[in-house]
Amino acid sequence: MIDFVSTRAPTGPGLALSEALAQGLAPDGGLYVPRAFPRLDPAIFQETTLVGRAVRLLAPFFAGDRLEAELPAILAAAFPFGAPLCEVSGAGRSYRFLELFHGPTAAFKDFGARFLAECLSRNLEEETTILVATSGDTGAAVAGAFHGRPGFRVVILYPDGRVSPRQAHQLGAFGGNVETYRVSGTFDDCQAMVKAAFQAPRPRTGRKLASANSISLGRLLPQMTYYADAVLRAVSSPPLAVPGGRADAALSCAARSSDGAHETSFVIPTGNLGNAFAAWMARALSTDTGRRLPIGTLTLATNANRMLVDYVTTGAAAPAATIATLANAMDVGAPSNLERLRHFASDRAGIAAVSVDDAAIAATIATVFRETGYAICPHTACAVAAAPADFDGVFVATAHPAKFDTIVTPICGPVAVPTGLAELLAREAHAAPLAANAEALLDALRG
Ligand SMILES: *Cc1c(COP(=O)(O)O)cnc(C)c1O
Fold this sequence. Notes:
alpha/beta; globular; binds pyridoxal-5'-phosphate; 5-stranded parallel β-sheet; 447 residues; Rossmann fold
């Protein structure tokens, strides 16, 4: 069995995976990491589906845990949608995208949130409130993942006026066991309120609280799986409709195969470093004969918030005040998962990082659309802008462009809305106002 330790006490006593999932953050303020990486199961190279590969990849992390036998069912329930690898081309250029936005809330956070929900609901001991602060996409993914689940109530805080209009609508559209609050403050205020609630004594919070934020292992581990799936994929996915309806655009899903001989490099839109760190972990695993997943260089594409770029290029970096950008889900001044990267990777080998400003984001959305007819979201645009023109790896597409229509539509014209998002947008939305202080949140939690 492998156990999980805090980054701040790596030689201290460890926890079983289920306990680490339930706790979220370690009591000493550190992040849970596996004490040592387990071996990669060589049987992963024979699997042919996302869920099959995911089971092989994650089973060693679940070894000895009480959820071990349920892992295949957890993954099958969490990932009913895929992560297609698509190639779009035109004007003499082509781009490959790993589309991670086919889940119900149209951003990659569905993978982590749904996996966490499957794990927590199988270990549920008492009525629990999932409390989450969001800068846009996390809240909807978590709400969607826990919506209608017996025993759970979800409380979402978002900064009023600081998420995209469609993100705001989506956050308020769930109803049922999901309560949404628009806080008259910033995302940092929302996070501080959540932190204070977790530190408050139990009688002041009503039910037991659990966290679903991006430092949770239950969101990190499942994000490894689509990188393994992408580099091992040998068969094509069904063709996609052309977003925006440009019939002359050449769009097809790639049947590129990776037989293990070729490494695939990724450029990953990065904010809190959850998604990219998962790719790093998948690359770090090896079988007992030294065989690895063919994952090449990982380039972290940030917006104007450049702490990670400073860290990767110089080895040192200080947290900075958050800068608001067009890629709002990546507006993070002090990425929390950097603590995990520092814990494992002293040499930063095979990692690059590039910061992209708003002008380049808008220009890149326009260029890719003009060349290929394929619309990308502002976060995905950071990835494309971060790479040289002759890059032959894969851009990670973290959200559907329709989620950011106020930015994308003026550049590309109307973008077709995916079904899950359309259903939420058709519902009435409600978010209650909340003052930006911990007392107001504690009152709401008990109410
Ligand atoms: C959250 C988010 C990111 C950043 O992911 P991290 O794991 O925080 O680095 C990028 N793009 C979109 C669309 C997101 O919602």
